[in-house]
Design a protein that fits this description.
Two copies of one chain form a homodimer. Chain A is an alpha+beta fold. Chain A has one domain: Roll (Pnp Oxidase, Chain A). Helix content of chain A is 17%, strand content 37%. Chain A has four helices and twelve strands. In chain A, strands 1, 2, 3, 6, 7, 10 and 11 form a seven-stranded antiparallel beta sheet that branches. A four-stranded antiparallel beta sheet of chain A has the order 4-5-9-8. In chain A, strand 6 and strand 7 form a beta hairpin. Chain A is globular. Chains A and B meet through strand 2, strand 3, strand 6, strand 7 and helix 3 of A and strand 2, strand 3, strand 6, strand 7 and helix 3 of B. Strand 12 of chain A pairs antiparallel with strand 11 of chain B, so a sheet runs across the interface.
């Protein structure tokens, strides 16, 4: 299996057995999530900002307004961190200390690159929309030249990458298994609700089918 | 209404109308979430790590192993950032450009303080467990002295704080409202599934009631 090479910065230090470096496993996490948290430093302060993203091949793209603090900082070729986290469940143990969560998270470190090639930029934006709703790009009005100018797209190579995964039941201290306390996992899942049509929706359009959002 | 005073670092710059500074609104977001993303810098590299948290009064607590990279870095009195993000829905517009998400996020900046007072530490851990499952602390075995030693708790004051919130339907360009394209919001909700009992669960215990997890 193809692996990411852990570096001193991405090797999972704490609970090392939860570290995952296989590319297929990392990509599956990145493809399931829709929001990442981007970390960067500007004027000596660390910021963490949530934003949409998409993986294409061995890159992650984010986009935003040229006026944003994030895009300005990312564009200065500084080392940034993009983290994607999926919460799979609450792990309820028999002791307070062993309570935990089941999760899958990916951390990507590196330098972001401003996408200047017009074809790569449009391809990234198409992937971005279709990552959230498969097939959506071809159904909607596509960007004008002015809209493309008003959007910056940044690419971060999937190079220095690691994942951390916890699955399974709680791990209690041996003597605690005798306690009459319910323990186990409460799965958590993010699910779409009933679509709410725009107030100015044209009459007669079929309602959006949330089955299109099924992931993994 | 009591407000956080925005600073040059927390004032929402991009889409300033989405900025929220009322304490009650910020606290409601912090109390609904269960995972935050902590950003810090160590050896010149920014890291973003997901972890549990709880708000108590005007502080956020996180905890972890004394051996973790995060706790080590947070403990050096550097300015960190803790971000909590709730995703409320997908905003599907008639143009690719105006696709968006409905979300509520809080950004907290400041210096973390290691909690050394034993009472404050236990109170924080109790709040931590009860934040995820109300009332759980009193049902489970409480920490031993050794477990308490093996857990570090850090506090970040809710001082330099802002929230950013998007709600409502897509905002399309005027001429696009005539397009025969479904537009609107697909709500997203995180919901608990059927609890999975631990393989070594004692017989006869009532199954965990997920209604206890209802939030807000």
């Amino acid at each position: 299996m193809e692996q990411f090479q852990p570096t001193t910065r991405t090797r999972v230090k704490r609970l090392a057995k939860r570290g995952v470096y296989e590319k297929a496993a990392v990509n599956a996490i990145l493809d399931e999530g829709i929001v990442c948290h981007v970390g960067f430093t500007a004027d000596g302060q660390t910021y963490v900002i949530p934003t949409g993203y998409v993986r294409v091949d061995d890159r992650i793209y984010v986009h935003g307004s040229p006026a944003s603090r994030m895009l300005g900082a990312l564009n200065q070729a500084l080392d940034v961190c993009i983290t994607v986290t999926l919460i799979d469940g609450l792990v309820l143990a028999r002791s307070a200390f062993h309570h935990s969560m089941n999760y899958r998270s990916v951390v990507v470190l590196g330098k972001a690159r401003l996408v200047t090639d017009a074809d790569e930029k449009v391809a990234a934006l198409r992937a971005f929309v279709n990552h959230v709703v498969p097939g959506r790009w071809d159904e909607v009005r596509q960007p004008t030249a002015k809209e493309l100018q008003g959007t910056h797209v940044l690419a971060l190579p999937l190079d220095e990458v690691s994942a951390k995964v916890r699955t399974g039941p709680p791990i209690d201290d041996e003597e605690d298994y005798a306690l009459p306390i319910w323990a186990g996992v409460v799965p958590l899942r993010t699910a779409p609700g009933e679509p709410v049509g725009d107030p100015r929706l044209l009459p007669g359009l079929p309602i959006f089918d949330t089955a299109r959002l099924a992931r993994s």
